[in-house]
Amino acid sequence: MTQSLHFLQARPFRLPLNNSNCHNSSHHTLLLNPKFNSFSAQLSLTTTTTTTNKLNSNGKKDSSKTTVLQPKTPSKINPLRYSSLIQDCINSNSFDLGKSIHAQMVSNGYTPDTYLQTKILMLYARSGVFDDLCYARKLFEKMPERNLTAWNTMILGYARVDDYVEVLQLYFRMQSLGILPDKFTFPSVIKTCIAMEDFSGFQQVHSLVVKARLNGNSIVGGVLVDAYVRFGWMDDAVTALDEIDRKSVVSWNAVIAGYVRILRWEEAWDVFHRMQRLSVCPDHFTFASAVRVCGALRSLERGKQVHAMLITCGFEGDTFVSNSLIDMYAKCGDDKSCLQVFNQMEQRDQVTWNSMISAEAQFGHFNEALLLFSRMQDSGFKSDRFNLGSILTASSGLTDVEMGQELHGHLVRNFLDSDVILGSALVDMYSKCRLVEEACKVFERLLERNEVSYNALIAGYVLEGNVDEALNLYHDMQLLDDIQPDQFTFTTLLTLCANLRNDYGGKQIHAHLIRRTSMQNIIIDTELVHMYAECGRLNYAREIFDRMGERNAYSWNSMIEGYEQNNQIEEAVQLFQQMQLNGIQPDCFSLASMLSSSISLSAAHKGREIHAFIVRNTMEEEGVLKIMLVDMYAKCGVMDYACRLYDRTINKDVILHNVMVSAFVSSGRMDEAKHLFDQMKERNTASWNAFLVGYAKGGLKVESFSLFREMQEADVEFDALTMVTIINLCASLPALEHGEEIHGLVIKKGYINSSVVLETALVDMYAKCGAIEKARIVFDMMNDKNVVSWNAMITGYSKHGCSKEALILYEQMQKEGIYPNEVTFLSVLAACSHTGLIEEGLRIFISMLEDNEVEAKSEHYSCMVDLLGRAGLLEDAKEVIEKMPIEPEVSTWGALLGACRVHNDVDMGRFAANRLFELDPQNPGHYVLMSNIYATAGRWKEVEDIRQMMKIKGVRKDPGISWIEINNELHIFHAGSKMHPQTEEIYSTLRHLTLRIKGLGYIPDTTFILQNVEDITKEEEEESLLQHSERLAISLGLISLPEKSTIRVFKNLRICGDCHTATKLISKITGRCIIVRDTNRFHHFENGECSCGDYW
């Protein structure tokens, strides 16, 4: 047979000369056990002093002198009794007496046969005395004949003292002599292979076991199971278990423990469940392992099943099992059951106290954990590294830095701060107290680190939102041999990616998970579903969800919430129904998602169905559901139901008050909102925000700013929502000066780099207020950017005609791992349209169509129509409309009509306008555009027809207005407006400017008068153009703003061609930068040129 241990085979067998492994060693005087008086009476005894060498607990020899009784030669002993006497001594562990009998045999000159020699061999080999084993080897080598039992005795003897080399030497020698191993040989040899980590050698031994048909033997089979478990080959371990004829509970336990060791919890549970089906009676180790599995799976239902079973089997009072129950209930979040088990225990050990203190800390009962720690000490148990770690957790939970620092000092004084468990707890404490620098210092001082240490610091970086440091630490873990990311590592990082909507980082972690293991893990899979759903990658989330072998309520809730948040409401409702069909009872979270879906659908009837379910299941008093119900009825327009629910609630908290205030504000019932607000005994920032958001959404801009000032005067603590709301208000006006003031307040309050949403709002505000350079400064200073941040900057560049910068950002965001979404593509295509980048636009549009992640919508096709139409490719633009796979919307036909206005194509314009008159008959913009096309072509009859059509349909043209902000005050102008206090100066300035720009070649373009006036003079036509609202606003800016300051004017309609030409020349003669934002885009006029390049 080919052996795996070649280094042993290479050595020819010989009697070893080394005393340390018993060879050629001298035998010392034998000891007599005086307890056996019945036999001792037959012997003449003398007193002598002997020296014995025994193995201590460390495997070393201890020498000691002992005074013992030593037999003289008896007068008569029947030789036939020697065998049974020695066997009795072996059975009763009376080795001293047995050696005395052997000494008497030697003194009598009695020569034992092979059978008796083997018994004597057993006597010395099993005594546990090192010198006795050496003497046994000497006897073994002198035996003329050795039977199988003799070989097994020596192999077992060496196995007991962990001399694995000698075990294998004897095993190979035995085989070379043709002696076949039996059921007593194989267990020792297999255990030796385990100890020497020789899997190849073990497999060869296993093949011999199979040939000997001993794999069904309970002892041999049990050792085979244990070996495969130790080597981590669990499938083979299960196969070995199945081959055992009479399986012992020890073998079952070995398989369960093996699965537990490699965190394959479901397989461990399946083995335990199979034991139940086969009526195998578990022992306390089985129950403890099964309880641990339930805790790891967070399966409270299964845990309670096991608890009931172990009570039936009489293990309720077992301390070891009870400790496991405390840990399981703690992990499953059942604090009552956890405490009940603890209180019912008659005997508690250190593990009991440590587990319960840890449980209280896990439950967030931090004061109770401290109280238990004190009780433990009063009960005579001492503090150790485990309970001190829990107390550190309690101090971090209470954010009691002082207590944590006291404990830290205690650990330093006792040289325990570098201990891996306590050091990890310190890292965790400082991380949760948001002192990550201190956490990092403790981490660096640790002499040894484990997964918990790394996870604690990663969690600290996650709390700070520091993605880079968290991922760097994660990558450091991957490079280590003895530490690898575990379940907590992955779930923490996936949660971080979900919170930041960073699917790129999430995909990296997912890829590592795939490479690391092919096994499913319900907790990690659920976090993957949650991460992809939060990032809007619903196809990935659903694929993982459908592949999950088992799903818990969190798995279903994550998928349902993902659909709901991404506005796929029908899918959310269908999944909610499917969840119930699969036997999962809806909880607060799934019901809240369904109520939110009802809001999105404005479907009060759906909300009523959910409400009925909540009432039937007595969940109406659940705080979050009560709030969601009020909110749902209010937002679905059923205010009576909302008010009724609110009035019926006895214990109203500030959150419910805030929801009701917001409901009144949103429905325009401001008096009732104010009345409720004034009656509130407790108000928080959210209470003020409810008003502020309501005013802002209702377009009550003056009231919004007034309320904000009132908040400042009342010293109300602002939060990010307050700032975002007021910044968005500044963007919508737009009001740059107000926005700059709020930005200063944001910096003063320390909100910079604390909220991606807030910083993104600042980027958007500056871009919409015409300060694109400031928008870019804020964008570049952002530590974290999500896809919305990138979109805000790209959209800003697009609106300002900075197509090159928009395209550069589009490429850069992808390099940084942010995948473009539908808004990104819309902004980039608009940027190409504004500057006529046809090839780039087509390339990007095609790439979007070929990418399954983003579905092209009507808005994207509208951009393509606009891109082609503005470039004069009107037939191509029309072809896009005709061949697009979805029904063209108003914006698509509007883009074609706008292009026809640019190129004065009457026929194509009429074709597009007719479709718009059908789809959107009340929109005055379509009529005005077509009227302008006719007017430019001099077709005044058709112009009049359009006006009559508008009159008949009751459509009113939106009046053109422009506005400018000066010293935080908005000045609004209509065409020909003369209500402003500085009207004379405004008009005088314009007339003076007109004369000057005529000197530069300006000729008024009267085609933009757009009305049939044959009886007015040329001067009157020029005066009519001069009175356009944008020119009036520009004039006021020139008069009122400091020299060389930028003039920013905003208009609700498209700037006319004559004003565009005039403003270019005004910028040249005044040396001023003039920015005009019309309904489509920004125009930057400077030194006689416009940023649009006259392509608008």
UniProtKB/TrEMBL annotation:
<dbReference type="Pfam" id="PF20431">
    <property type="entry name" value="E_motif"/>
</dbReference>
<feature type="repeat" description="PPR">
    <location>
        <begin position="318"/>
        <end position="348"/>
    </location>
</feature>
<dbReference type="Pfam" id="PF14432">
    <property type="entry name" value="DYW_deaminase"/>
</dbReference>
<feature type="repeat" description="PPR">
    <location>
        <begin position="653"/>
        <end position="687"/>
    </location>
</feature>
<feature type="repeat" description="PPR">
    <location>
        <begin position="147"/>
        <end position="181"/>
    </location>
</feature>
<feature type="repeat" description="PPR">
    <location>
        <begin position="248"/>
        <end position="282"/>
    </location>
</feature>
<dbReference type="InterPro" id="IPR032867">
    <property type="entry name" value="DYW_dom"/>
</dbReference>
<feature type="domain" description="DYW">
    <location>
        <begin position="1001"/>
        <end position="1096"/>
    </location>
</feature>
<feature type="repeat" description="PPR">
    <location>
        <begin position="786"/>
        <end position="820"/>
    </location>
</feature>
<feature type="region of interest" description="Disordered">
    <location>
        <begin position="50"/>
        <end position="75"/>
    </location>
</feature>
<dbReference type="InterPro" id="IPR046960">
    <property type="entry name" value="PPR_At4g14850-like_plant"/>
</dbReference>
<protein>
    <recommendedName>
        <fullName>DYW domain-containing protein</fullName>
    </recommendedName>
</protein>
<feature type="repeat" description="PPR">
    <location>
        <begin position="78"/>
        <end position="112"/>
    </location>
</feature>
<keyword id="KW-0677">Repeat</keyword>
<dbReference type="GO" id="GO:0008270">
    <property type="term" value="F:zinc ion binding"/>
</dbReference>
<feature type="repeat" description="PPR">
    <location>
        <begin position="552"/>
        <end position="586"/>
    </location>
</feature>
<dbReference type="InterPro" id="IPR046848">
    <property type="entry name" value="E_motif"/>
</dbReference>
<feature type="repeat" description="PPR">
    <location>
        <begin position="450"/>
        <end position="485"/>
    </location>
</feature>
<feature type="compositionally biased region" description="Polar residues">
    <location>
        <begin position="65"/>
        <end position="75"/>
    </location>
</feature>
<dbReference type="GO" id="GO:0003723">
    <property type="term" value="F:RNA binding"/>
</dbReference>
<dbReference type="GO" id="GO:0009451">
    <property type="term" value="P:RNA modification"/>
</dbReference>
<dbReference type="InterPro" id="IPR011990">
    <property type="entry name" value="TPR-like_helical_dom_sf"/>
</dbReference>
<dbReference type="InterPro" id="IPR002885">
    <property type="entry name" value="PPR_rpt"/>
</dbReference>
<dbReference type="Pfam" id="PF01535">
    <property type="entry name" value="PPR"/>
</dbReference>
<comment type="similarity">
    <text>Belongs to the PPR family. PCMP-H subfamily.</text>
</comment>
<dbReference type="Pfam" id="PF13041">
    <property type="entry name" value="PPR_2"/>
</dbReference>
<feature type="repeat" description="PPR">
    <location>
        <begin position="349"/>
        <end position="383"/>
    </location>
</feature>
